[in-house]
From TrEMBL:
Protein source organism: Solanum verrucosum
Source domain of life: Eukaryota
Any one of the GO BP annotations: coumarin biosynthetic process
GO molecular function terms listed in the Swiss-Prot or TrEMBL record: 2-oxoglutarate-dependent dioxygenase activity; L-ascorbic acid binding; metal ion binding
Similarity field: Belongs to the iron/ascorbate-dependent oxidoreductase family.
Record domain Fe2OG dioxygenase: where: 219-321
Sorted UniProt keywords: Iron, Metal-binding, Oxidoreductase, Vitamin C
Protein name as annotated: Fe2OG dioxygenase domain-containing protein
Coiled coil: none
Keyword Transferase in annotation: no
Keyword Iron in annotation: yes
Length: 374
């Protein structure tokens, strides 16, 4: 069902609505969604209006689900506790594709400062931010609003601005990082790398592999930190913060503030991921579903827009992104058998990332492109 006003609908019929021109005009400001909000708009511009009402996409949540929370305390000291944690990580990765971790070793003060540093970047003078605004995804630091802004398969622009920082394996020099979040970005990234390697050990054990397996095949080699800024929206029922999608990495470690809005598609229902003080959200990415041959699932999720804001989140993607590499990833041979043949063809990380980026957040999974047809 269309949610466009009568005037907008008639304009489209007459062909007078030039979406591409409006997208380019928005992009040329380099001010992002925040620039529109700062200009004092009271209605969502046409480029952001979703073609169907947001609530029509939501299944009624008749069943109450408890989002999995895993306590990592004592994981290296108690073998029994360690096995219990491995079992919980495996179960959550197979059924939800998502879980939260507490007692993960990253100080609360570091997490809070990372959120504040991200906010400082987006709320500084626009002329300073413009220095980083680019659609060249090969750069180590990229400030952009909607990486898929011009993708023809994406029906509406998302209510979100972002900064992407490639922190590993070839991290930027401090001078390349924005002053507003420079120090905390380096500190937080170091903590997340340590946590990520531990998570990959647990995920390896959950697959029945040696704990070092996923780290040894370089799943933890690359880290891209994405800071997202979702301004308060005057008409959140018309637009969305992030379209439904699954992540194009091995795993994602997410730090979110207390506003909420992140939802996971679980058993055909959209489930809120509750903001939990001190917790980090972990989710399986497409590449881990591919190499685990569907043992672990990369699940669709989205972010709703909100009249309250800004919402700040920091998503840490474990993959090498656009870095050139010839390393091939396919279903892990130790997991295969006559009864469990490979379900995906091999790919490089950059090939997968490029395909994902070109496709954009159009509501379909990039994994389908790599599926071996029976």
């Amino acid at each position: 069902m269309e949610v466009l006003s009568t005037d907008d609908f008639e304009a489209r019929i007459r062909g007078s609505y030039d979406r591409m021109s409006e997208l380019k005009a928005f992009d040329d400001t380099k001010a992002g969604v925040k620039g529109i909000v700062d200009a004092g708009i009271t209605e969502v511009p046409r480029i952001y209006v979703q073609p169907t009402k947001i609530e029509e996409c939501v299944s009624s949540c008749e069943t109450k689900f408890i989002f999995p929370v895993i306590d990592l305390e004592g994981i290296d000291k108690d073998p029994i506790k360690h096995k219990q944690i491995v079992d919980k990580v495996r179960d959550a990765s197979e059924t939800w594709g998502f879980f939260q971790v507490v007692n993960h070793g990253i100080p609360l003060s570091v997490m809070e400062e990372m959120l504040q540093g991200t906010r400082r970047f987006f709320e500084q003078d626009v002329d300073i931010k413009k220095q980083y605004y680019t659609r060249d995804n090969t750069k180590k630091v990229v400030h952009v609003s909607n990486f898929d802004l011009y993708s023809p398969s994406v029906p509406a622009t998302n209510w979100r601005d972002s900064i992407f920082c490639l922190m590993a394996p070839n991290h930027p020099s401090p001078e390349e990082l924005p002053i507003a979040c420079r120090e905390i970005l380096m500190e937080f990234s170091n903590h997340v790398m340590t946590l990520g390697k531990s998570l990959f050990e647990l995920l390896s054990e959950g697959l029945g592999l040696d704990p070092s397996h996923l780290n040894n095949i370089d799943c933890s080699e690359g880290l891209r930190v994405l800071g997202h800024y979702y301004p308060a929206c005057p008409q959140p029922e018309l637009t969305i913060g992030t379209n439904k999608h699954s992540d194009n990495d091995f795993i994602t470690v997410l730090l979110q503030d207390q506003i909420g809005g992140l939802q996971v598609l679980h058993k055909t229902q959209w489930i809120d991921v509750p903001p939990t003080p001190g917790a980090l959200v972990v989710n399986i990415g497409d590449l881990l579903q591919l190499i685990s041959n569907d043992k672990y699932v990369s699940v669709e999720h989205r972010v709703l827009s909100n009249q309250v804001g800004p919402r700040i989140s920091v998503a840490c993607f474990f993959y090498t992104g656009s870095l050139p590499t010839t390393k091939l990833y396919g279903p892990i041979k130790e997991l295969l058998s006559d009864d469990n043949p490979p379900k995906y063809r091999t790919t490089t990380v950059i090939d997968y990332a490029d395909y994902f980026r070109e496709k954009g957040l159009d509501g379909t999974s990039a994994l389908l492109h790599y599926k071996i047809q029976p």
